[in-house]
């Protein structure tokens, strides 16, 4: 019996070693490419680091400076505006699109392909195409001319219109993707539940609101989390097509763009790291709140 | 035991001798980084091959970095200690690099000169043109390309408007406005389909390359690079900013919202572009544009007749490299800057060696004398630590007035404070 126990332990130990061996590459990859940069970022946020000279520890100085940094404070409001514009409308519109495509109608599959097309090209390609479309006298202006009467519209260079343009372009690319996730969620709801609701006298709207929507909660949590993270990290579009990379007058300088600007344009890597840590904390807080809210009244 | 120890000692000694003999034969490796200018890459490769053949003790590791990635790649590489030994860097960030001790002073003898004075003598207007890499009377680089802007006219568009670029090209900014109006075309809805002239609005550095020199023409200077002070809330800056604002909003002749000036010129949508160096000529030719080149206009009330700011790319050597690598790097830099005719001819890059400028190849060139005049009449942009941050603040100042419609006096007052704060924070410790 004792021998068998030893044999068993050795077998389990061997299996554990093999398990560890298989996991090790991922652990090493995670440590090198995720953990190390995060820890480095935390460290650099406490330093005066210009990239060109070794970092010098300055304690909380960078964070104190951020409190009176006009550009940083503006980037927070720009980021929050961008988050608001590319999350809540995207959730609602993508859900509406998913509900539409969940219905059976002629040409649905072809229409779905067209609707999904904006997700396929990279964001930089999308940016270039939209930059052409948003030329002051470009296609969009021409299309709207009967309504506006304007020969030219400064879509990207007007401080009021420019952030809205960014939000519209972003929504154009992300809504089809979230629509697909909603659609997967809708497909996963057992048909008999809907049928039961209808048998019990509920109409389609009541069935959707009372039966399907509550069951879509896990999907909603997932979409809310990834869309919020993506929105907080908004960078590519602002970098690629906003005038002067974040302009005009910094109305498109998101916190992510500010990290790039401070780090690689102004050689202020310590400040850039501090901004990225604040951004990291903001994302964590918002996601934690989202998760906390969705834990309430769980079915 | 003693015998064994003796044998071991002899073996170690032999190993040491062999190792040192091998390392003595090891070439010095120079890591050279260049930004991507496709026409010069094959030329560099050929020159480097010849250099290695003539200098078997030096091996060159040549890397071409895409333009868009240059600053990020170089910065991170220098931070991690894996940066190049020799690199071709624009003067925009040279103040940053110099003030942080990244640059090694030129080793004139290694580069093939008797001393530093001989380097200045070897270049046309050496004191002025090498000023871009001179700090406290010490030279920190050898120029790979010197650039000044001049005005390119699309002669077909000028002729279509009934103008002759040779005789009608304006000499003042005030005249330019009148000429641009004649060259501007609008569609029925009032949208601009052709601009007569427009500024380069799309990147902040042009506030120091174009806007500031227009202030200098009036006797002002927004940035004092020696004392790190700002002079922005001045009548000169107000005049220039007012002109840019009128250009976009009162006269509606252009603005930041339109296609960038160079791209618009190459597309035949802009009749006059004043932000092209001599390197722009091949692009205009490739676009099928018949062009002529003219000096930068000045103000009617100008006190200086400078053009736009000079800028350049210089070979610079990493001060963190070992002394022998630094020496080899300067030797390579000297070698690669010793063929100015070929670099101008093949790659369109101007290295103003005095003997080349005096040669038939240069004097018979139809456009280069104009650019040399502009270079000689102008000065470098401010070479400060914090160059890009100051440029960013100046662009914000411009946009608050031109795009945001804010009161110019209020904006200038606040810009003065903002840039002063940036300069104070950027000023290198004495």
> What order do the strands of the largest sheet of chain A run in, or round the barrel if closed?
1-2
Spans of at least 5 consecutive residues with low confidence of chain A: 1-5
Largest sheet of chain B: 6 strands, mixed
Strand content of chain A: under 5%
The greatest inter-chain interface is formed by: A-B, 31 and 38 residues
CATH class of the largest domain in chain B reads Alpha Beta
Count of β-strands of chain A: 2
Oligomer: heterodimer
Radius of gyration of chain B using CA atoms only:
25 Å
Gross CATH architecture of the largest domain in chain B: 3-Layer(aba) Sandwich
Count of distinct structural domains of chain A: 2
What's the β-strand tally of chain B? 15
Estimate the helix proportion of chain B, in percent.
40-55%
Estimated structural class of chain B: alpha+beta
Per DSSP, what share of the residues of chain B sits in E-state strands of 2 or more residues? 15-25%
Mean pLDDT, all residues of chain A = 88
User: Any guess at the CATH architecture of the largest domain in chain A?
Assistant: Orthogonal Bundle
CATH fold descriptor of the largest domain in chain A: MetI-like fold
The best one-word shape of chain A is: globular
Using the alpha-carbon principal axes, give the shape of chain B: globular
What is the gyration radius of chain A calculated from CA atoms?
A: 25 Å
Short description:
The complex is a heterodimer of chains A (299) and B (430). By secondary structure, chain A is mainly α. Chain A has helices spanning 2-44, 61-67, 70-102, 108-116, 123-133, 139-148, 161-187, 191-199, 204-215, 217-232, 236-241, 255-265, 269-295, and strands at residues 47-48, 56-57.
């Amino acid at each position: 019996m004792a021998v068998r126990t030893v044999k068993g332990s050795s077998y389990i130990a061997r299996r554990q070693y093999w398990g560890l061996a298989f996991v090790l590459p991922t652990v090493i990859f995670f440590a090198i490419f995720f953990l190390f940069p995060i820890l480095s970022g935390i460290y650099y946020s406490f330093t005066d680091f210009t990239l060109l000279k070794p970092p010098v520890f300055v304690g909380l100085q960078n964070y104190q400076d951020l409190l009176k940094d006009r550009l940083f404070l503006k980037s927070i409001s720009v980021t929050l505006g961008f988050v608001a514009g590319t999350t809540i409308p995207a959730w609602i519109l993508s859900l509406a699109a998913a509900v539409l495509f969940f219905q059976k109608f002629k040409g649905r599959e072809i229409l779905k392909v067209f609707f999904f097309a904006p997700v396929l090209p990279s964001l930089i390609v999308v940016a270039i195409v939209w930059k052409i479309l948003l030329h002051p006298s470009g296609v969009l202006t021409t299309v709207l001319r009967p309504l506006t009467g304007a020969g030219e519209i400064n879509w990207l260079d007007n401080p009021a219109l420019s952030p809205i343009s960014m939000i519209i372009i972003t929504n154009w690319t992300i809504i089809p993707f979230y629509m697909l996730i909603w659609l997967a969620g809708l497909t996963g709801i057992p048909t008999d539940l809907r049928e039961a609701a209808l048998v019990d006298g509920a109409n389609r709207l009541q069935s959707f609101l009372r039966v399907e929507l509550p069951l879509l909660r896990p999907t909603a949590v997932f979409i809310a989390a990834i869309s919020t993270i993506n929105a907080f990290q908004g960078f590519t579009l602002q970098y690629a097509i906003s005038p002067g990379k974040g302009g005009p007058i910094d109305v498109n300088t998101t916190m992510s763009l500010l990290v790039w600007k401070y780090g690689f344009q102004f050689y202020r890597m310590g400040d850039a790291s501090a901004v990225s840590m604040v951004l990291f904390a903001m994302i964590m807080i918002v996601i934690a709140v989202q998760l906390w809210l969705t834990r309430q009244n769980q079915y | 035991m003693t015998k064994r120890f003796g044998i071991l000692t002899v073996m170690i000694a032999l190993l040491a001798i062999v190792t040192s003999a091998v390392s003595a034969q090891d070439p010095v490796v120079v890591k050279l980084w260049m930004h991507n200018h496709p026409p010069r890459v094959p030329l560099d490769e050929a020159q480097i091959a010849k250099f290695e053949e003539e200098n078997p003790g030096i091996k060159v590791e040549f890397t071409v970095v895409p333009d868009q990635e240059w600053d990020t790649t170089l910065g991170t590489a220098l931070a991690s200690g894996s940066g190049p030994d020799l690199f071709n860097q624009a003067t925009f960030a040279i103040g940053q690099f110099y003030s942080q001790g990244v640059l090694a002073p030129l080793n004139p003898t290694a580069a093939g000169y008797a001393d530093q004075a001989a380097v200045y003598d070897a270049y046309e207007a050496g004191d002025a043109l090498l000023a871009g890499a001179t700090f406290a009377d010490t030279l920190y680089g050898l120029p790979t390309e010197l650039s000044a802007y001049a005005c390119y006219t699309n002669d077909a568009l000028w002729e279509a408007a009934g103008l002759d670029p040779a005789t009608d090209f304006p000499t003042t900014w005030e005249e330019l406005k009148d000429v641009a109006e004649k060259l501007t075309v609008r569609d029925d809805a009032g949208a601009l389909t052709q601009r007569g002239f427009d500024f380069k609005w799309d990147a902040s550095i042009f506030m120091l390359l174009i806007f500031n020199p227009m202030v200098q023409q009036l006797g002002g200077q927004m940035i004092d690079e020696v004392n790190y002070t700002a002079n922005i809330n001045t009548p000169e800056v107000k005049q220039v900013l007012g002109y840019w604002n009128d250009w976009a909003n009162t006269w509606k002749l252009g603005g930041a919202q339109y296609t960038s000036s160079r791209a618009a010129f190459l597309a035949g949508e802009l009749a006059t572009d004043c932000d092209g160096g001599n390197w722009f000529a091949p692009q205009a030719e490739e676009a099928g544009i018949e062009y002529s080149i003219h000096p930068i206009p000045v103000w009617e009330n100008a006190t200086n007749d400078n053009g736009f700011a000079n800028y350049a790319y210089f070979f610079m050597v990493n001060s963190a490299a070992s002394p022998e690598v630094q020496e080899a790097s300067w030797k390579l830099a000297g070698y690669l800057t010793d063929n100015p005719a070929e670099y101008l001819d093949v790659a369109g890059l101007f290295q103003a060696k005095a003997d080349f400028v005096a040669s038939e190849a240069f004097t018979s060139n139809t456009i280069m004398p104009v650019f040399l005049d502009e270079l000689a009449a102008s000065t470098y942009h401010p070479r400060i630590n914090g160059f890009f941050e100051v440029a960013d603040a100046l662009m914000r100042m411009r946009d608050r007035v031109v795009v945001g419609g804010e009161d110019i006096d209020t904006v200038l007052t606040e810009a003065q404070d903002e840039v002063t704060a940036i300069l104070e924070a950027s000023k290198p410790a004495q």
